[in-house]
Specification:
The protein has about 375 residues and is mainly alpha-helical. The protein folds into three domains: about 100 residues, no CATH class; about 200 residues, no CATH class; about 45 residues, no CATH class. About 65% of the residues lie in helices and about 5% in strands. The protein contains 15 helices and four strands. Strands 3-2-1-4 form a four-stranded mixed β-sheet, with no helix packed on it. Helix 1 runs parallel beside helix 11 and helix 10 packs antiparallel against helix 11.
């Protein structure tokens, strides 16, 4: 296994853990391996499965899974298959097993990432991280509102860039830091009364960055900044959608098409915090009692749309791990080529569209690889 291949595997596993948070990534990892423990007849299409935690998974005719929180009314609960506990090595353990395979000069960088990811995966990380964030924010606010805004801007940049790359923060925490910073900038321009919201930001007891960001959306709405909050949420969702679409273009350095997939998944990872921030923010905003029924429905719909796209992005991260050896792509391409060979072009186009446009497994240019007989997979 080359050093480049090891780097790709390590990066794919890291993206799986940080796109939302380590618990979310680990759960998906274990469920994927639990599925493989089922007898062949229960791995077939159109089955419903009960996850290891809450929720249900439906596997369609193309063996793609879809997670739902509640079992649809037309599904017989007795037909739902319980996934067995996989007890497969955890993602972090799998990443640790890769370290000896790195070249000596590069190994320390990846050891450092693994150490940071291990800390971020601990049960105490979320609350300790948030407590530290609030403590420093309070010190900044005591100096001045301008100092607080500078601190929040730096924190948003760190969380979204260095923190996620190093593995020291999760996508959920990056989402919260981004949302808090953008709300703070919006209300500081609007009125000196923003101090009330800022005081609550630095002093309200919370257990996570995400809860802190949700409370700030609530406090903005309750203190006369609802318009600013809605504008921020609209911009955040637009940014998330834009980043997804930008990634889907499949851009890569001239002469290096082999980097397309890595850059694509990295681009999707960059969209995830914005989608998560929009999901959380709109969920809170939709509970504003002053909203009309039409407004409440609009905000709930936007929140659901952000969540649905985030699920697709996180599923793409899992697919990237499964497809490190190209096996999943070869299977999908073979299925599409079989449909083309039998004259069923509509089915072939549908399968390609599902993989590229609906599931977000690949960037747009990859559709050519799936559909053309002489394309290199």
């Amino acid at each position: 296994m080359s050093d480049h291949a090891v780097s790709q595997a390590f990066a794919a596993l890291q993206r799986l853990l940080v796109v939302v948070d380590p618990d979310y990534g680990e759960s998906g990892w274990q469920v994927a391996h639990s599925f493989l423990l089922l007898p062949p007849d229960k791995q077939s299409a159109n089955h419903w499965y009960r996850g290891r935690g809450s929720g249900f998974i439906h596997v369609d005719e193309n063996l793609n899974g879809q997670y739902v929180k509640e079992l649809p009314a037309d599904v017989d609960p007795a037909s739902v298959i319980d996934l067995p506990p996989a007890q497969y090595p955890r993602v972090l353990a799998t990443m640790k097993s890769l370290l000896p395979k790195f070249e000596d000069g590069r190994r320390p960088e990846f050891e450092s990432r693994l150490n940071e990811l291990t800390k971020a995966s601990s049960p105490t990380h979320a609350q300790e991280h948030t407590r530290n964030f609030q403590f420093l924010a309070q010190a900044a606010l005591m100096a001045s509102q301008k100092t607080l805004l500078t601190y929040l801007r730096k924190q948003a940049d760190f969380h979204y860039q260095t923190g996620m790359i190093q593995g020291s923060v999760t996508g959920t925490e990056a989402a919260a830091a981004l949302l808090i910073q953008k709300l703070a900038e919006a209300i500081a321009r609007a009125s000196p009364a923003a101090d009330t919201v800022f005081q609550r930001l630095v002093s309200t007891p919370v257990i996570s960055m995400e809860q802190l960001s949700a409370y700030m959306v609530r406090d903005c709405i309750q203190n006369g900044f609802s318009q600013q909050a809605y504008e921020v949420l609209r911009a955040v969702l637009s940014e998330g959608n834009g980043l997804v679409e930008g990634a889907r273009e499949g851009l890569h350095p001239v002469g290096h098409p082999e980097t397309m997939l890595d850059l694509y998944y990295f681009g999707l990872l960059g969209a995830a915090p914005y989608l998560r921030a929009a999901m959380v923010g709109y969920e809170v905003a939709a509970r504003n009692p002053a909203l009309s029924d039409a407004e409440r429905k609009t905000y709930a719909t936007r929140g659901n749309a952000a969540e649905e796209k985030l699920v697709r992005v996180s599923d793409a991260m899992m697919f990237a791990v499964k497809d490190l050896d190209g096996s999943q792509s070869r299977v999908k391409r073979a299925e599409i080529q079989k449909a083309l060979a039998t004259g069923n072009e509509d089915k072939a186009q549908g399968l390609a569209m599902e993989a590229v446009d609906l599931k977000l497994f690949y960037p747009k240019p990859f559709k050519q690889v799936l559909l053309e007989p002489d394309a290199k997979a």
